[in-house]
Specification:
CATH architecture of the largest domain: Orthogonal Bundle
Strand content: 15-25%
Number of strands: 14
CATH topology of the largest domain: Trigger factor, domain 2
Low-confidence stretches: 154-159, 248-257, 440-474
Strand order of the largest sheet: 1-2-4-3
Order of helices and strands: EEHHHEEEEHEEHEEHHEHHHHHHEEE
Shape: elongated
Mean pLDDT: 82
Oligomer: single chain
CATH class of the largest domain: Mainly Alpha
Radius of gyration: 28 Å
Length: 474
């Protein structure tokens, strides 16, 4: 009996192996036999014991696509495991599989598998980083702008997560040149107070939204490589904050509720403090961005394609659902953002890869420094997630417990702890003055670290056949 599998191996990058497989006719026949056996055990056919009904009867009683999928699962599982063993490949996670052909009559099955290997991380120095933080101050013009915005909104509260950027909002914006594959540059800005082209481009954008735009940078722009130039860039909104204000009307002015302002001067002073607090909070996000950008520059990071492809697929699915609610499709959304659909997808993939690389870096530092998650770490992240999702922390925890999935909670907790560690060991130049982190007073040189994330106890099984259901050939 012929058992030789035809396959072609291609190493796409240090962490991703592509394997194109053609199963033998015997393997295809065995796969279909097991599929029929599986469904025959569920059928109750008069005159036959469970599992012994003829194929023809099973084929009539079961959806053909279900049989094809079950056969494909069996064929892929056995053949891919054999190839992985022969090639001595240890998957870091479930491979992604695209089924390209399956036919019972022709006894044919072909598929392409992307096998993820362990991420590889060679960290540069991550202690004692020096980054420029934003200058945290509030001008009279900003206070006046907020007062005017309060009048326009008639005191109605608007959550930043429920709307796009409006004038007066504070945001961390990442600008990436269209040429090159770098991290871009992040800036903390006040909407309406940057420069005309950027103010126009970001108006109405939401957190994590991306847009392609042509910007004419002013001659005194802080990024000297762009100053005085006009070029096409990608804009990504990292985070947005607004000043949470109570309603401002005559009744409130008379009663002095919440702000308890004695007069207009006192009201402006309290408002200024609110803006300052919002800037401080967003300044933390800005510093996080700057620290991560510095580490990425000095490090070598390789992640399997399957990791960032899964993240990009999820985000694009979320974008498609949001667009559908507005009666649009992703092609229309891409056009609104100045991109072709293919380019829009590529931008999301690039963003997903960036986020995955950062998560892997955080995990590597977490392990290198022998950190541990405490209950307080998990509680803070749980509260943060519950606030974002608009639910009570207890409800969110129960949902995670029910689904047996605490992955996002753990990822956020690790990220939060690592970023605190980095800031404590960094020197942040705030407003032109260097400010050392808590541990910098006793700073010692940290040698370069080469580390790989700890491998799992055992490799997970190959993925099931294909996300796309195969169709039976006539």
């Amino acid at each position: 009996m012929a058992t030789t599998i035809k396959f072609k191996r291609e190493d796409l990058n240090p962490c991703t192996v592509k394997i194109s497989v053609t199963a033998t006719p015997d393997q295809v026949t065995t796969g279909f036999d097991k599929a029929y056996k599986k469904f025959s055990k569920r059928l109750r056919v008069p005159g036959f014991r469970p599992g012994h009904a003829p194929k023809a009867m099973v084929a009539q009683a079961v959806d053909p696509n279900e049989i094809l999928n079950a056969a494909a699962d069996e064929i892929v599982r056995t053949t891919l495991n054999q190839v992985l063993n022969d090639e001595k490949i240890r998957p870091h996670d479930r491979p992604s599989v695209e089924l390209t052909k399956i036919d019972e009559i022709e006894k044919a099955c072909e598929y392409v598998a992307k096998v993820p290997l362990e991420p590889i991380v060679k960290l540069g120095d991550y202690r004692g980083l020096k980054v420029a933080g934003p200058k945290v101050e509030v001008s009279d013009a900003e206070v006046d702008a907020q007062l005017e915005e309060m009048r326009k909104r008639s005191g109605k509260r608007e959550a930043v997560t429920d709307r796009g950027i409006t004038e007066g909002d504070i945001a961390v914006v990442n600008i990436r040149g269209s040429k090159g594959d770098d991290e871009g540059r992040s800036f903390m800005i006040v909407a309406g107070q940057t420069f005309a082209a950027l103010d126009k481009a970001i108006k109405g954008m939401h957190v994590e939204e991306m847009k392609k735009a042509e910007l004419s940078f002013p001659a005194d722009f802080q990024e000297k490589a762009w100053a005085g130039k006009k070029q096409e860039v990608q804009i990504t909104i990292r985070s947005v904050n607004s000043v949470v204000l109570p309603e401002l009307d005559d009744e409130f002015a008379k009663s002095g509720k919440e702000l308890k302002a004695k007069d207009l001067g006192d009201l402006k002073a309290k408002l200024k403090e609110g803006i300052l607090e919002a800037k401080r909070a967003l300044g933390e996000d800005f510093i996080n961005e700057a620290l991560l950008e510095e580490i990425v520059k000095s490090s070598e990071v390789h992640v399997p394609d399957t990791m960032w492809e899964a993240v990009a697929h999820q985000r694009l699915s979320e974008e498609a659902q949001a667009a559908q609610k507005e009666g649009k499709n992703l092609e229309e959304v891409a056009k609104e953002h100045g991109m072709k659909f293919e380019e829009y997808v590529e931008k999301w993939q690039a963003e997903a890869k960036t986020q995955v690389q950062r998560a892997v870096i955080a995990n590597t530092i977490f392990r290198a420094e022998k950190m541990r998650l405490e209950n307080d770490d998990l509680s803070q992240s749980l509260n943060e997630m519950a606030y974002e999702y608009g639910v009570q922390p207890g409800q969110l925890f129960e949902a995670m417990k029910k689904n047996k999935n605490f992955t996002e909670l753990e990822v956020r907790s690790v990220y939060r702890k690592v970023m605190k560690f980095l800031k404590d060991h960094a020197t942040v130049e705030e407003g032109g003055k260097a400010k050392a982190g808590k541990s910098e007073a006793k700073a010692e040189a940290k040698p370069k670290v080469e580390a790989k994330p700890k491998p799992e106890a055992k490799a997970k099984a190959p993925a099931k056949a294909a996300e796309k259901k195969p169709t039976k050939k006539k």
